[in-house]
User: Fold this.
Amino acid sequence: MSEIQREGAPRKKLPVVQTTSSDKTVLPEVLPDPRRDRATSAPRARTLAHMQRLLALGAAVGVASISCGKSNVKDASEKRGCGKSDDGSSSGQNASSGTPPLPSTYAVVDPMPPPAHCPELAALLEVQATVRQADGGLVAVVTFPLLESRPDFKYVGDAEPFVMGGTVVGTERREDGVTVTVKVAPALSDAGVSTAAVHVSVKGMCNQGPTTLDARLAWNGPATAAVKPTVSVSQY
Amino acid sequence: MARVALVGPELEENLSLRYIAASLARAGHTADILAFDREADFCHILQTVLATSPPLVGISLAFQWRARDFLALAVALREGGYRGHVTLGGHFATFESEAILADFPEVDSICRQEAEETMVRLADALERGEPDLLGIPGLALRSGDDVVLTGPAPLPDLAKLPWPDRRGEPARCFGHGIAPLVSSRGCYANCTFCCIAAWHEQSLPGKRYRLRDVDDVAAEMVAMQRERGVDVFVFHDDNFFVPGHKRNLERFSALADALERRGIGPFATVVKARPTDVDPEVFRVLVERLHCIRTYVGIETDADQGLRTLRRWAKSKQNHRAIETVRALDLYTCFNVLLFDPDTTLESIETNLAFMEYAADCPFNFGRVELYAGTPLLARMKAEGRCRGDYMQWDYDLGSPEVERVFALAMQTFGPRNFGDDALANRIMGTRFDIEVARRFHPDVFDPEWLAEGKALSRELGVDSVRGMRRILEHVRRDPTGAGDLDLVAELAPALRTAEQEIRARCQALARRMQRRIGGSPLTDVGDRVATPLQRARENAASFDAGVLS
Assistant:
């Protein structure tokens, strides 16, 4: 028996490390960047905002329109080419250059996603959401309206919505806004879920450039049609 | 058998996750290791965990500056419908377990301290469907509205732990495999900015470090060389050294003897040392018998004020002696300087700049002391009411407005060099590493000019940094109003970028020269790694059009 498998550890073929890059390196003794992340909000709020940015980044590099519901991941991966490539290797790339940065660069120079344009839109927008029980499970209908006060703002017609916690059933684009119908991931309705949430993001354009609006439907417990979810809107 | 997903950084082989993976395997469980190195990994990991739905996800939260990334992952897993157990581990998670559990209901538990046995017991309990985890020592978890710390877990016996899981390919430099390992855990010192002493004091009061038997370390190194082609062993011990030169001499000689007995092939080591550890006799053994090709010397500060504030247990003359010793041995050495700490004065900055200039043949970087969880310095700053922020990220004002201005100007001008994307102060350490690998393993083609050029490049960058910082100091003294700050930044920053551009290009040219003679890839980014043949053709065409094609 190999010495590396001492103490009775079973010798077996181990799965390789899963990563978007197999590059390994030798790290210097990296000093922290003191400028990073001057806190302006509570730890949880900052983390949630950061999560939305990370999800948006996933959308930007090709993991778009995935549903993170368990039952849908496989199909979504195959459809969008995320996860494994044809040769079985990992397919993701560094969004900015394809070259893995040293950790000193991580979250310091942050090229993706692009800065929010017209950041005041999120506060102006009143996204409507209804949830109903259908034959196939829970369905959420989320409507992003246009703003009379902001004629420069419009939704981008050919961009697919980005959804987390469900799958897109349909998208209707009208003169007065966009409505996205989402089948909520069944796992979110299981008893014991502490905070079920569905994110629906749509792309738009304002006089400063492109922007993304994200509506978060959250339940204080499992997702259900009996309880109206709290809707919050953020922008990135 | 439970399937466990272990998530953490993997730019180097992550020994904390890999030790746990090996322990889980020995207990009959299966562990996947999911690397979260960059933001683009986030969705990939999310999908993988949701698709495989393991009953236990272990997330490494060792680095405070990555806390948001990993906590965001825990939240996203829940929002995506993951129903298994989410546990965290590592230094930051351990020290801040109560705050994290209060803020993040998505997290079920935190494995405190060294977690090999705790993770195994957790996987066992979840596999058996045990609802009550309070009987597992070493955990922090919720009980009703309270956060409960179960009893301390027994520390893993380093002699009995399985060696780390070594799946995957190692890093390589000119074809030579590189792998990290540890020969000990803990550190005998107690610097105020470091949480290692507090970590080990919590788990093993009165004894801050434990050593592996050198024969066991040698066996692991030889096995890695034979099974994985690893020639360069990077010791990531909290402190590779024990107190007392005689003991170090005995330990390193014994390790060299054990390696020889086991018939190890050509190899090299990389270590870290405190300045007080750098003894000529000990380091001669390190260089001649353990073939050390690089040492990081924790200078941190050369100012008497800084040495006191940081509780370095060292004097300036010991810093200088350490540099003289490694120079005499011609041993590649690098270091960092914590130029800004809560008590820094303009005079202590001057002292440290003088040291940086004196030792500029060694690559170095400089920055500010950060207030990490669990450190004595954080406790002091809290007691003095000088902290701003929260447990995720503390900030503070430096000791005087003048020093604060120097710091602000330094960040505005030196950010890209010290911390930015592809920071040259870090990258140049890779170039020096390339040279030493060439010198050690390819003496037949090694050109001494490479070493001379590497030292010259280090010195040029270092002296340029010192020059820039002295300009900032002089400016702050001459212009107390701050009216000219913007002009200074506008003038100094481009000059620094120009110097970096030139030095980086010479590093890349040097790496290419070595690559042509040796083959394989250097650690220095040679600049064309991501260019496709089409892109290169376009670049050549553009150069031709511009009349600069050589």
Summary: Chain B is about 50% helix and 15% strand. The first strand of chain B starts at residue 3 and ends at 8. Confidence is low (pLDDT under 50) at residues 528-550 of chain B.
